[in-house]
Each structure stands twice: as structure tokens, then as C-alpha cells.
Amino acid sequence: MGSITRSFANNIGSSGILTASAVTNATVEDVTSFDNAASNATLVLLSTQTASNSATISFTTGLDSTYDAYEIKVINAKPATDDIFLQFNFSTDSGSNYNVTKTTSLFTTYHNEADTDNVFAYNTTNDLAQSTAFQSIGNSTGLGNGADENQCVVLQLFNPSSTTYVKHFIVTSQYYSADNYSVNSYIGGYCNTTSAVNAIQFKMSSGNISDGIFKLYGVKKS
Predict the structure, then answer these.
(1) Domains and CATH numbers, the chain
(2) 136-179 confidence digits (pLDDT tens)
(3) pTM, rounded to two decimals
(4) Measured on CA atoms in the order 52, 67, 45, 61, is the torsion positive or negative?
């Protein structure tokens, strides 16, 4: 029996099942996935939408009781209009209306390219108090629409299907502003409703979303 055959045979258990040491990147070629293998990934991608001069981007399915928490990643969102804000709002009727009552707090750090202005401060311009308005993601300085200007966002939503508790959310964002600032903003808040939140919509405060990738993930239960 040759050395290769002998090595393989030594990794077969008494019940005829391969041992863990028999299956490695070096021993299994051209395999991209195993049907019954457990995944260690925390985030489960549910859907992806790509903006192309879009008035809105909405997720009207996927937010349900399957997961206790959800995460939305916005990658390189670019506005068609200069100096405006990416905004979001929630729905309790599967997207017929985006008008959930929210209370939020927002603080921002920013620094300009000329190194002449830098701030770390609470922002009263875009916070909300028991408001059904869309929440703006950013400082008083708006998002630019230059060739290389864009915004990236992570939005976390917790237990949206609960009919007992308010729905908390956390947003972190980084963008290139219309007047050449690096703007890093943080939003915390809650949807003041005990109805299940089952949809979310993004839009610009003026004009369309020229470009951007929007991904909805479920956070795997432990």
C-alpha cells in the first residue's frame, strides 16, 4: 500500500467515518462549501440593494422574529444633490408609511482637510424628540456629491418584532462632507412604539441616491 493510501486509511475511524485531521485545505481540493457544515458567521446576509439614481431604498421584508437583532450596512452612498443628508425612518405597516415616533441623541466629530477646524460635540440640529420625521445621519455639515465623496453607515436595530418593548437602534457613520470635512457621527435612539417594526427606508434629504450598496443582515442567535 502506497504512502498516500496508507495516510488516508489511518484517518478513517472504526465506524468508517473520516477523522477531523483527514479534512484540511491541503487534502480537499476545489470545495467551496459543505451542505451540512455549521457556519461560525455572526451575520447572515438577507438581502442586498444597489442604488442607481434611486429616490428611496426600502427593506420591506426580512425584519421579523427570525432574529433578535438586525444590522444594515450602507456602503459608499452618494447623493445626486450636494450638501444634504442621508436619512432613515421605520414602518410598522410593512412600508405603507414611514412615520414611527422616535427620540434620538446624536454626537459628532469632524475635522477639515485644511487642519483649521476640529470639533467633538453634541449635535442639536439633527436629534429628534418624539418625532415621526426621518432621522438624518450626520452633522450640520452635509454630505457632498463630488466624484469621490460618499458615506458609509452601520445601523443596528434590536428586537424589532417585539410587541412589548420600544425598539432601540444605534447608528455609526463616516462621510466626506460637501466642504471637505471628515465627519464621524453617532446616533442612539428608540422607536417609541410597542408595535412590531417591519420595514425601514433610506432616502436623501433632497434629491436621489445616486449610488450606494445597502445590505440587510440578521444577527445569528447564540
Answers:
(1) 38-219 (2.60.120)
(2) 999 878 999 999 999 999 999 999 999 999 999 999 999 999 98
(3) 0.82
(4) negative
